[in-house]
Amino acid sequence: MNLLFHTPGHAEHDPTALSPGHPERPARLEALTPVLEQAVGAHAESGTWAKREHAPATDEALARLHTVAHLEWLEGLAANGGGLTEPDTPVLAGSMSAARSAAGAGLAAVDAVLTEPEATRAFCAVRPPGHHARPFTDRGAMGFCLLANAALAAAHARAVHGLARVLMIDFDVHHGNGTQDAFYADPNVHFLSLHRFPFYPGSGAKDETGAGAGLGATRNLPIAFGTPADTIVGRFCIALGDVADVCKPELVILSAGFDARRGDPVGDLGLELEHFAAMTAAVVAIAEAHAGGRVVSLLEGGYDPAQLAEGVETHLAALAADEPSSE
């Protein structure tokens, strides 16, 4: 069984109120509503997909990566009616409730796949996204991201469930600098990022491979614009296999961004739906080989709502492709 989580009240975080035309807007998740409803409805009898409720992330969970000063800064901006943390990252009155819910979805998804024998995969349709939010930094919000959703999920898996090895994967068009920073010196959380380079946020060079005890646990695949899509996917699959063979993960956490799709207004690496299907299938295969099939996928980028809906629909199908019927 696969589980679907979403962000209740996400529309209260509406950056267009402070920055007209902002691409990270409520319409992104609103476009996913029919996709998620169809995913549940299409498998209602077999029980392959199910929607789940979840609680917002607690201060204790957030404090594993975020400083008190960071949280107080964001809560203060929200309480005072909002403001900009940087030119492209607004905070509004409802932003922190949405961000806490987005982070909480990842925590609940980890709990489910690690404690429920019938639950193997989870997809979190959440916003605001999280992979640029910098941990251990007093004012770490950037790149549309307020809280480090995927990294918090990994920290939760380690702290609450005692996992020794977690593999984090990111195929958003932008490098997940916040995720990388969270575990750069940690030998037990491996990170693989495929991203356009050079590009925002400027990090993610090939020689960024970790530090201290974590040296070698970070693997970056910087991709030049114009690289053929099949070549990109081939590189990803080879690197993924190599990293997984070293990490031997007990859980796979994926930052699933769809802004590498051809025509995305913020990113674009020329990928099409079949390429996202292939990368998702490769992630599933790694999870089956090493982690009992357990994958938690969290939405990151993708800024054309119609294209995003198609990407998520493709992603869900690939996540569930090997799920056996309950009949």
TrEMBL record:
The lineage of its organism: Bacteria, Pseudomonadati, Planctomycetota, Planctomycetia, Planctomycetales. Keywords: Hydrolase. CDD domains: HDAC_classII. It comes from the Bacteria. The keyword Nucleus does not apply. GO terms for molecular function: hydrolase activity. It is an enzyme of class 3 (hydrolase). InterPro entries: HDACs (IPR000286), His_deacetylse_dom (IPR023801), His_deacetylse_dom_sf (IPR037138), Ureohydrolase_dom_sf (IPR023696). It holds the Pfam family Hist_deacetyl. Belongs to the histone deacetylase family. Its EC number is 3.5.1.-. Residues 1-24 are annotated as: Disordered. This is Histone deacetylase-like amidohydrolase. PANTHER family: HISTONE DEACETYLASE HDAC1 (PTHR10625:SF10), HISTONE DEACETYLASE HDAC1-RELATED (PTHR10625). Residues 22-319 form the Histone deacetylase domain.
